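Researcher: Here's a chain I'd like modeled. Treat it as a single chain, no partners, no ligands.
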Amino acid sequence: NLEEEPIRAYPFGPLAAQVLGIMGPVDADGDGKLDDVRRGTTGLERYCERWLSGTPGQREVQLNGGRKRSRELVGLGQKLVPAIPGADVMLSIDRTIQRIADEELARTAREHEPEGAAVVVVDPASGDILAMSSWPSFDPRDPGQGFAIGQHNRAIQHTYEPGSTMKPLLIGTAWQLGLGGPDRMINCPRIFRVPGRSKPVVDSHTVGLVQEFQVIVQSSNGGAVQITLRLSHDQIRQALADFGLGQQSGLPLPSEARGDTRSLGKMNASHVAAVAQGYAVTVTPLQMALAYGALANGGTLLRPRLIRAIRTREGELIQAFPRRAAARPLGSEITQGAMRKALTAVVNSEHGTARRAQSKRYMIAGKTGTTKKIVDGKYSEREVVASFSGFAPAEAPRLAFTVVVWGPSTKKKRAWGGTVAAPCAGRIADRALRVMRVPASPDSAEAKAAREKDTRAK
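Model: Modeled as a single isolated chain. Structure tokens:
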């Protein structure tokens, strides 16, 4: 019964709807009309159609030739060509983590009424995509009117200016090249003027004279610009390319955006100042999740893996998809040392901008981003894009992730990456790590409380 087929094919309803895609009726015989034959038309259903569809069987028989009621003549001239079942496509998506991402993204949408939102969760050790969620979504079993909007996979099809989540990538590059260091002192005034740039670089507060480590923790725009200006234009271009920005990842899904880094071709000091603050280039949520995966795993950018293997119904391997490294933008001495310490402090220290991402059980590391949203070709003074990119647990990362929220409501108060995206990311990380049965971080509030309890008991 073809009418029931979509229900059997999607037992988990809207889970990972944009990733899986849908099966739809097609014109199988070429007569210009849709038939009762369904094939993958979007998402992985479309990409994997050649493996999933199988080969129909045939049975040729002889009939008794009656004009009104023909009957099969059993045993005479029968020819049987058995059907070959479609293959099994083994995905990297973790069903439970995907459900957590969907639920928390929907909660964020209810609370902040955005234009749209997306979450990507990856395994930083393998590049496996564990969850990819977009809001608004749809139900593949009954796409209905919501399909037109819900089919958009914002995680790979929509871009944004990353804002301050860009800072660790460029500051880490400067540290790697010896053009500064986490302990080096730097003065970060509230208003910093770049020679040749009419618009000053402004911070929400005065950071003052601090170690460069604090530029990341307190998200100083002036400090980030000063450090990035030490890099040559070629070094900036190479760094962002090595982190995978402005490039398609090769994911087996349609319409993946590249992002836009073309402006890096013609840079001056004013343009560098914009890039240092995460403006003038656009990225996808997937690209930023993978970039922070590199910060988490010791400095290696991995290609994302959505399909692990394709096997026959009997389990025979048809095609494997191994782990693939794309570049190594930073070394482990930076990523597992000062940068990890700084990103952990962003979430867990007094001056950090992402304290709402904290977990009682795990130390979460990451960076907030807030950029002005472009409305009618101009930057809006009211509408923003809020984001958070990070990894957890900080001491031994098992997850890397990015949350992006386009146009959260500002009815109650100003929306920021730290107030909109960070809480969502923190809840996803906490719930996912608990499901994975990852032990509590040694420095977490829960672990400290347990140690104090043991001490008192002794």
